[in-house]
Design a protein that fits this description.
Length: 142
């Protein structure tokens, strides 16, 4: 069982705050090798990540808020494939779907992944928390 799953079950079982607090240090980014970027209440952790061409990055929503992973079309290399949670093909569609139906939203524990095939800088944002500064960057190197 992953540590976050244990924490969810401990919390759901109504075990005291002290027991949950004692386990809290075991969870979060770095506590689970199955994802690369965690989404906390107000940001991505880490906010900058460097990977190699061909690597797949996995994001996991580690907070209780709904988040998205939405590339800025003008913030990715020209030849790169666009990416957004929800599978949208471009930024205007991802924004419209979020606004109308909360499309692309990732709930607690949900994951999104994307393979980076073109070197360069990839800037992305959480649409519901964009005005609060929730954006990050993946750097892809040869």
């Amino acid at each position: 069982m992953h540590r976050r799953g244990l924490l969810r079950r401990v919390g759901a079982a109504g075990i005291g705050v002290g027991a949950t607090a004692a386990l809290a240090g075991c969870a979060g980014v770095g506590g689970d090798p199955d994802y690369d970027v965690g989404m906390v209440a107000d940001g991505y952790r880490p906010a900058e990540l460097t990977v190699s061409v061909g690597d797949t990055v996995v994001w996991e929503n580690t907070s209780s808020r709904t988040h998205t992973v939405t590339a800025y079309e003008g913030g990715i290399p020209d030849d790169a494939e666009y990416f957004a949670s929800g599978g949208y093909e471009n930024e205007p569609t991802a924004r419209a779907e979020w606004t109308s139906e909360f499309g692309g939203g990732l709930e607690t524990g949900d994951r999104f992944s994307h393979a980076f095939e073109v070197p360069g800088r990839y800037d992305y944002v959480c649409l519901p928390h964009e005005t609060g500064g929730m954006y990050a960057t993946v750097f892809v190197e040869e």
